[in-house]
Amino acid sequence: MKEKIESILNKYNNDPSRLMDILLDIMENSGYVDEFSISVIAESLNISVAQVKETISFYHFFSEKPRAKYNIFLNNSITSCLRGFKEVKEAFETEAGTSFGNLTEDGLIGLYETSCIGMNDQGPAAIINDKIFTNLTPYRARKIINDIKAGKKLEELVYENHGDGNNAHPLMNTMVYNHIRKKSILLDENYEKFDVIKNELKNISPQELIQTIEDSNLRGRGGAGFPTGLKWKFGSRMPGEHRVIICNADEGEPGTFKDRVMLTQFNDLVFEGMVLAAYATKADIGVLYLRYEYKYMLNYLNSVLDNMRKENLLGEDISGIEGFKFDIRIQLGAGAYVCGEESALIESMEGKRGEPRDKPPFPVEKGYMDYPTIVNNVETLASAVKIAKNGAKWYNSFGTKDSLGTKLLSVSGDCRFPGIYEVEWGTSIREVLEMAGAHNVQAVQVGGPSGTLVNVKDIDNLSKTELMKWYKPSGMMTAQTAFDRKLSYSDLPTGGSIIIFNKDRDILREVVMNFMDFFIEESCGSCSTCRNLPRIMKEKLEKIINGHGVRDDIDDLLNWGKIIKLSRCGLGQTAANPILSSILNFRHLYEDHVMAMTDYDNQFDIVKSVSPANSFVGRKFIHNHS
């Protein structure tokens, strides 16, 4: 055992910054990281046992306890719940003879719940020993368990041969489908792979490339919308022995799966975008941070990188450009939503807990291993290639005045055609609903749980502040309902997630509670605001839903929502959004639950409440009604 661990350590040159890879390899080999392995790792890397354990304990897919021969991670995101998660879960438990969070007595099967795995368009879905199983039903769940008990191999559990496009590649061979419903300038397949690197890069200077990206007004597609050209310019000017380009492929926002499709079908654009960013900023280190849930892509993506090296598109003197040295490696995550935040991602890449860093300094100044680091999202890098090929003026002809270009939308929920839609910025919610075949719509979640829950309101019911959004300077009404709002940085910005809910859904009990559970589960725990308030707010919401709330409880939720914004990262700052957004646009649902015309909860039973304490200390309770 020690020899195997030492072999893995030697593979990574006993580098403590590669702790994530070391732990991933040990998990692959043994199924868990035991105390002996931890002590060997700590001694060899010259770090404390506590440092190793804190990294293991932080990530969902690491374990210090033995796992089963077959480990089933069932996705519990809202889209999975809409399509039968509860029934599938019960089928797994009944057939396996154990409950979720446990192993069967013989150690054959382990059942676990997990957050969004990027399969919102084909759920309920599960990861079984790193293989994706989509469109689960109770029947399929029971058959999987029975086949496992019958001794069948993992490949024999699969009930669909393979999905479309590159999902059918021998190195992936997954039943996942791309579900690309609408294409535009980014998903246009007429582009010749790596054309800019091969034929045009040598004819433009790094400064000219940065200027083109800056003139295009391309903004980050991860949600924050920071100007990409400006980030590249800052990065190119920072001093350092090395510069780093990171592609953030850790999309963990429930409802988002666009990066999954881009990396499956358009990975050449993504990798070419990384090379362009490296050329522009004189970077020599490239890393694609790939979420663990997409591990099934790893071998295939590595084969693409190998082919790029053979074609001199990576390595030394790329494409004949003297002195241009750059390579890319893939860093797997291990299951942590917060690692989608760029500084938490960098911490994870360095083998640590994925806790966001205090800023400043920003990653572009001091990022990975303290080198100047440019972090771009998958869609952003792919867009940069099309801009470099066709020019800034071409790109500016799409979208709106303040939101240029196109946007990839991951559409899921209550609709006939879930999938990927590439639309121009400025497209309305109504148009998206029509494209997706959504009817009887009650609400639309724009931007995932951290975004906005949009209600189909009549204009007559909007507040004065809200009404201002619907008027032109001329005073003419521009919309009839909130579904006519536009996807843009000035109205409804989004990283790409669109989840649709019909009128049969219980918005508070089903949707908001699910989102709050997600934020509670995914908090890194660093800030007291994010660590405590989501749980307290969820309990307050439960009180309201159960009919024990008063109007002051709604005000409490709004006030606590202001406090949570003091958290230091985006996850913490938006963790209350499911409640805040639903109060703003669905306040009537809260009002329906609270007791009208009362200032206190008259159903509170003080005798029942204090009886456990009285029993513990042997005290009799005397209630003075006066």
Explain what you see.
The chain is of the alpha/beta class and 626 residues long. The chain has 5 domains: 2-58, no CATH class; 70-160, Glutaredoxin, CATH 3.40.30.10; 182-395, 3-Layer(aba) Sandwich (Rossmann fold), CATH 3.40.50.11540; 401-502, Ubiquitin-like (UB roll), CATH 3.10.20; 506-626, NADH-ubiquinone oxidoreductase 51kDa subunit, iron-sulphur binding domain (de novo design (two linked rop proteins)). It contains 24 helices and 14 strands. The protein has helices at 2-11, 19-30, 35-45, 49-58, 78-82, 85-96, 138-149, 195-200, 206-216, 228-237, 258-265, 267-281, 298-310, 342-349, 378-390, 392-395, 429-436, 464-467, 507-522, 528-545, 551-564, 570-574, 577-593, 606-617; strands at 70-75, 109-114, 126-128, 131-133, 180-182, 244-249, 285-290, 327-332, 373-377, 406-413, 419-424, 441-446, 452-455, 497-502. It has a 6-stranded mixed beta sheet with strand order 5-11-10-14-12-13. A 4-stranded mixed beta sheet has the order 2-1-3-4, covered by helices on one side. Strands 8-7-6-9 form a 4-stranded parallel beta sheet, with helices on both faces. α9 (206-216) runs antiparallel to α10 (228-237) and α11 crosses α12. The protein is globular and about 85 Å long. The model is unreliable at 458-464 and 466-480 (pLDDT under 50).
- The global form is globular
The residue-averaged pLDDT reads: 92
Largest sheet, spatial ordering of strands: 5-11-10-14-12-13
CATH topology of the largest domain: Rossmann fold
